[in-house]
From TrEMBL:
Alphabetical GO biological process terms: lysine biosynthetic process via diaminopimelate
Originating gene: lysA
Protein name per Swiss-Prot or TrEMBL: Diaminopimelate decarboxylase
Active site feature: 334 (proton donor)
Pathway: Amino-acid biosynthesis; L-lysine biosynthesis via DAP pathway; L-lysine from DL-2,6-diaminopimelate: step 1/1
Residues involved in pyridoxal 5'-phosphate binding: 231, 265-268, 362
Native organism: Kingella potus
Coiled-coil region: none
Amino acid sequence: MSLCCENIRYTELAERYGTPLYIYSRAALDEAFAAYTCAFAALDPLICYAVKANGNLAVIRRFAELGSGFDIVSGGELARVLAAGGSAAKTIFSGVGKSEAEIEFALRAGIKCFNAESLPELERINAVAGRLNLKAPVSLRINPDVDAQTHPYISTGLKDNKFGIAMRDAEAAYRRAAALPHLHIVGIDCHIGSQLIRLDPLIEACERILALARRLAAQGIGLQHIDLGGGVGIVYDQEDTPDLAAYASAVAKLIGGSKLGLILEPGRSLVGNAGSLLTRVEYVKRNENKNFLIVDAAMNDLMRPALYQAYHRIEPAETPSAAPFAADIVGPICETGDFLAKDRTIAAQAGDLLVVRGAGAYAASMASNYNTRPRAAEVMVNGGEARIVRRRETIEEMLANEKACL
Ligand SMILES: *Cc1c(COP(=O)(O)O)cnc(C)c1O
């Protein structure tokens, strides 16, 4: 038996394009997007795909075709959205450290709004907008102080995180924003973390943000939208992930007759399970106490296991002939942290192809050249067709910006 992406065997893709290789299924992107639009249909939300999960131009293009907006965290990501045919008018700009140049770029492009994260940032947006003779649309990212119950590195909604404006400072921040002449207050937003497995923190955040919106309205600060961020978890192993329909009906009940528009910023849940990473076993190494499958993909291609102790399912692309044994699946990089999986029972021998699942999000977008390894190619599969959407980087390209002179 051979595993396939849509109608194409992974072994065939590996032969055609080499390994390591990221493979995305267009049908899976479409399905994930439809899951949001269906579940939230009654609220008619603007879904702003969080580009940092996977910024490939073909991925952005596909979501733009489906009607998506975009959540960006840098000027570079804005350039990606524009290059892929995404709409600036449906793009919101998040992130704690927006530079003047990025703010100017976004204002000139005509983005939907800035999700501002601090008072100094509001002052800076106001100053840049004033210089350009524009009014900048802003939302304030409020930290609702709920525990997202996820890995600490991807938990962002607690009061000790660097993200957002604290709930107790929120009303004063809105009053300050209202007093700045080149700002136009349009919304309120939050994003409490990523890979959330429980629904209640998301709903609790929504409750707190809406309560704040009501207090603001009482002070004459009206809003057009509420943005609940992203964060919905996906299945990497056996997780029981939040049900979108249950999420949507809880939000609908809370928003009720408030007339606020809804924005969502999903990243991982739109692309994570639409992608796999193909890697070939280079060596089987048997040490005294441990076996290792040394594969040609490494932490530079998939950083999540090293960074968050994340789990990815890994399966042989073809039914193996060998008997299964326990092994760590590791890359060639010179770091003990360079592993894709630990203590797996797997049947594989040198030359076999492995499929690393859940590699559509935070894989290619986090890739680096560590150990001077070229970035892997990316392929989009649509039915029986496969297209290269990023070609494999060359060694010449990696060296091109450097000079050996002193
Ligand atoms: C990363 C991020 C998202 C997307 O998070 P996912 O967990 O991938 O859905 C949304 N909004 C903001 C502000 C982010 O930083």
